[in-house]
From TrEMBL:
<dbReference type="InterPro" id="IPR034681">
    <property type="entry name" value="MenF"/>
</dbReference>
<comment type="similarity">
    <text>Belongs to the isochorismate synthase family.</text>
</comment>
<dbReference type="GO" id="GO:0000287">
    <property type="term" value="F:magnesium ion binding"/>
</dbReference>
<keyword id="KW-0474">Menaquinone biosynthesis</keyword>
<dbReference type="GO" id="GO:0008909">
    <property type="term" value="F:isochorismate synthase activity"/>
</dbReference>
<feature type="active site" description="Proton acceptor">
    <location>
        <position position="199"/>
    </location>
</feature>
<dbReference type="Pfam" id="PF00425">
    <property type="entry name" value="Chorismate_bind"/>
</dbReference>
<dbReference type="InterPro" id="IPR005801">
    <property type="entry name" value="ADC_synthase"/>
</dbReference>
<feature type="binding site">
    <location>
        <position position="426"/>
    </location>
    <ligand>
        <name>Mg(2+)</name>
    </ligand>
</feature>
<dbReference type="InterPro" id="IPR004561">
    <property type="entry name" value="IsoChor_synthase"/>
</dbReference>
<dbReference type="GO" id="GO:0009234">
    <property type="term" value="P:menaquinone biosynthetic process"/>
</dbReference>
<feature type="domain" description="Chorismate-utilising enzyme C-terminal">
    <location>
        <begin position="178"/>
        <end position="430"/>
    </location>
</feature>
<feature type="active site" description="Proton donor">
    <location>
        <position position="249"/>
    </location>
</feature>
<keyword id="KW-0460">Magnesium</keyword>
<protein>
    <recommendedName>
        <fullName>Isochorismate synthase MenF</fullName>
        <ecNumber>5.4.4.2</ecNumber>
    </recommendedName>
</protein>
<comment type="pathway">
    <text>Quinol/quinone metabolism; menaquinone biosynthesis.</text>
</comment>
<dbReference type="InterPro" id="IPR015890">
    <property type="entry name" value="Chorismate_C"/>
</dbReference>
Length: 441
């Protein structure tokens, strides 16, 4: 029997699932055409909602609903990955992220670490959509699992157009304000401080309040349309808040034993025309302060990868052009040793000096002592993990949308040669895209 309604098709597959098929992880799939995946996600009542699209040109677009299983620690996640790999067969994708400081995450409702195996997945690659239902039979009663899956399918709704973004008048408050920021930069760039801590990435929270908040998914849809070459993500764990972002920076991508990572640090604005844009790019590559920001990141990545891998190779410094900013980037490739897991990589690599500093401990101590806003999942990790491959972004260029405020986050690497006013302007260029979408540009 061939059913054209994808939900009916999945129900049918669920009802006719053979007893021998009720083993380990099972994914039931059917073709499904949806115009706008974010629009489809936005109308669903089942939480959590996750949106994930990697930055590669042909990347799969994923939206997920609900959770078959959720993990608040990397140890638990890795144990589950290993358990399913042991059973064999198709392996699932887990989606989620981690706070900047997993031991003290700071945002209510956002655990230090949260990855989940979704109940429902809708994915699209090269125009082809697939709706999937995920089930687990290894550690639970099959009848209960099937009943829960049915309950989830029963409440799926048809796609609706996303609401329009209305131009609200927002009140803006920066934490810290510019004067205090300047004092921090002076302190970090004092020769005594630079002597023991050459880089600290300081951050600012820009709090925007208005009587009404925009729909976070409509905001993400607009934001991503103007952010090619970036990762796109959104997560909604509870009804009235969401965390979205379009980060340009990869934490790492793993395909089997092959690891790709990068040092993305050093920033300038875009030019008014092609000539000025090129002049700004050339100046950025030649600039000592910006090169030092980048160097701090790649040196630490190379040091951390050394014991975990072989054949570590780094490419030339080059420029990445985004809508409002240009960055220096160096790509790094390595072959991981046989037993190295995502759990290990995620325990070692973040926070990189792109968002923390060097040495890590003293940079983090400075951040904790001075920043009064909670970074939460800003500057943390977001992405997809599976047995065969993983892809994770550094959660920058992001917004937390709550019931009363939108909180934007931006950081800047403070090193020898940093000037308070220039670094303050750099924070503004980093939030320029989302600010203009909100009518605040
Ligand atoms: C910390 C952020 O970005 C980081 C800091 C950069 C810099 O200071 O030049 C550039 C890219 C990222 O490494 C952010 O966007 O919030
Ligand atoms: Mg910088």
């Amino acid at each position: 029997m061939y059913l054209t309604d994808p939900i009916e098709a999945l129900k049918h597959q669920l009802d006719t699932l053979g007893e021998t098929a009720k083993k380990g992880f099972v994914r039931l799939s059917t073709p499904c055409q949806v115009d706008n995946l974010v629009g489809w996600l936005s109308v669903q009542s089942v939480l959590p909602h996750i949106y994930w699209k990697s930055r590669d040109a042909d990347a799969v677009e994923h939206v997920t609903l609900g959770a078959v299983k959720a993990f608040d620690s990397l140890v638990a996640l890795q144990a589950d990955l290993a358990a399913l790999a042991g059973i064999g067969g198709e392996q699932p994708d887990y989606f989620g992220g981690m706070a900047f400081d997993p031991d003290s995450p700071g945002w209510q409702h956002f655990p230090g670490c949260h990855f989940l195996l979704p109940r429902i997945e809708l994915r699209r690659q090269q125009g082809v959509g697939t709706l999937s239902l995920n089930l687990r039979f290894d550690d639970r009663c099959p009848d209960t699992e099937i009943a829960q899956a049915h309950a989830c399918l029963a409440v799926l709704k048809a796609e609706k157009a996303l609401p329009r973004l209305l131009p609200y008048i927002y009140q803006r408050e920066d934490r810290p304000a510019q004067k205090e920021w300047a004092a921090w930069v002076e302190r970090v760039t004092h020769p005594n401080h630079l002597g023991h801590t050459p880089k600290v990435v300081l951050s600012r929270q820009t709090c925007l309040t208005a009587p009404e908040m925009p729909n976070p998914w409509a905001l993400l849809a607009h934001w991503q349309a103007g952010a090619a070459d970036c990762f796109h993500f959104g997560i909604q764990l509870t009804p009235h808040e969401a965390f979205i972002g379009c980060p340009p920076e990869r934490l790492y991508k793993r395909e089997g034993r092959h690891l790709m990572t990068e040092a993305l640090a050093g920033t300038t604005r875009r030019g008014q025309d092609a000539l000025q844009d090129q002049a700004l790019a050339d100046a950025l590559l030649a600039d000592k302060k910006n090169s030092l920001e980048n160097q701090c990141v790649y040196q630490q990545l190379l040091t951390q990868l050394e014991p975990l891998s072989s054949q570590v190779q780094m490419g030339e410094a080059h420029i990445v052009k985004l809508r409002s900013v240009q960055h220096i980037r160096r790509l790094i490739h390595a072959e991981l040793h046989q037993d190295v897991t995502d759990q290990q990589l995620l325990a070692v690599l973040p926070p990189t000096p792109a968002v923390g500093g060097v040495p890590r401990e003293s940079a983090l101590a400075f951040i904790h002592q001075h920043e009064r806003h909670q970074r939460g999942w800003y500057a943390g990790v977001f992405g997809r993990i599976s047995h065969t491959s993983s892809d994770l972004a550094v959660a920058i260029r992001c917004a937390h949308i709550g019931p009363e405020a939108i909180r934007l986050y931006a950081g800047a690497g403070i090193v020898a040669g940093s000037q308070p006013d220039e670094e303050w302007r750099e924070l503004d260029t980093k939030i320029a895209d989302i600010m203009s979408l909100l009518g605040m540009g």
